[in-house]
Amino acid sequence: MRLRRLAFVVAAAVTLAYVARRVDPRVSYVVPVAINLALAALFAWTLRSGAEPMIARFARRERGTLEPELRGYTRGLTVVWVAFFVVMAAVSVALSAAGWTAAWLAFALVGNYALIAALLVGEYLYRRRRFAHLQHASPLEMWRHASAELRERRP
Predict the structure, then answer these.
(1) For the chain, which residues make up each domain, given as ranges?
(2) pLDDT tens digits for 56-66?
(3) 56 CA to centre of own chain
(4) What's the per-residue H, E or C state across the chain?
(5) What's the predicted TM-score (pTM) here?
C-alpha cells in the first residue's frame, strides 16, 4: 500500500512538472522553493504556543517520554530546521534569479538533499556527544520513528 502511494505521488509530480514545463519553463524553478517553504511552514507550525515542536514529537516517539533536558534542545532544533528550509528556498531563488541554470540544477537535484543529509548526520553526531549519558536510536530507527509520527499525526 505504501509503495503504491509513493508511486502515485512520484507519477503525479513528474506529470505535473512535465505539464508545467511545457506551459512555462520557469515554473520548474518554483518547485524546490515551494517544497522547502512548505517544509519550513510544517515545522514552524509546530512551534506555536501550546503545540509540541516537530523534533520533540520524533524524540518522544523514540523515547516514550522526553527528558527535560531534551525539551529545549528539540524545540531549538525545530527552529534550526525551519531556518534551514528557508535558507534552502532562498538559495534556490538566488541561483535561478542570477540565471545560473547549471548551478541551480546541481543545487536543486543534489545539493539541497546532500545538505539535508549533512544536517541530519551532523545533528546526530552532535547529539550523541552532547547527551552522551542518554541512549540514542540509530539513524535508521530515527527515520522509522519520524516516518511513523508523520503518518499518524498531522501538525
Answers:
(1) 30-152
(2) 999 998 888 88
(3) 15
(4) CHHHHHHHHHHHHHHHHHHHHHHCHHHHHHHHHHHHHHHHHHHHHCCCCCCCCHHHHHHHHHHCCCCHHHHHHHHHHHHHHHHHHHHHHHHHHHHHHCCCHHHHHHHHHHHHHHHHHHHHHHHHHHHHHHCCCCCCCCHHHHHHHHHHHHHHCCC
(5) 0.81
